[in-house]
Inverse folding.
């Protein structure tokens, strides 16, 4: 792991990391987050009751929003590189124990830099979309636990979060 902030130069100025000399490798990142809400709100989402209100299926819309966000990460995060993603998957599962939804995103690329920011952005925007679509019935919704679970590829190799 690096012992310095790679996006800050010696003078303290922000900079985009030069990845020009790095080799192209297969890179994968997995991130997760959760959206907690009232049990009744979760039941509405799972039963697809929001469709009748013309908002559409919450989980399907949030999945597409997450995928779209991953593809636009470089437009949202100032020092992120634009990437030609080869795959983005966003999985959203109900969890009655929360109660709420668990969101997981996997981003893949063959490139010179990692896809951690793309996976994290996909999760964040999917969670925000769930909030946006359900806020009319539950203002107490909370988004949390957004974190990187795993990354593979590149010079630093394979990393997995230890619980």
């Amino acid at each position: 792991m690096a012992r310095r902030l790679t996006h800050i130069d010696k003078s303290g100025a922000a900079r985009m990391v030069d990845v020009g000399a790095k080799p192209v490798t297969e890179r994968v990142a997995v991130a997760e987050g959760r959206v907690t809400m009232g049990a009744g709100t979760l039941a509405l989402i799972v039963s697809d009751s929001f469709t009748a209100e013309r908002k559409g299926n919450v989980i399907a819309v949030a999945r597409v929003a997450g995928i779209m966000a991953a593809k636009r990460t470089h437009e949202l995060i100032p020092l992120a590189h634009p990437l030609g993603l080869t795959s983005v998957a966003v999985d959203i599962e109900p969890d009655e124990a929360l109660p709420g939804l668990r969101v997981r995103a996997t981003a893949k690329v063959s490139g010179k830099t990692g896809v951690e920011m793309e996976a994290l952005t996909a999760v964040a925007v999917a969670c925000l979309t769930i909030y946006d679509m359900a806020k009319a019935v539950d203002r107490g919704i909370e988004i949390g636990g957004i974190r990187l679970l795993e990354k593979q590829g590149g010079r630093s190799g394979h990393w997995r979060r230890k619980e």
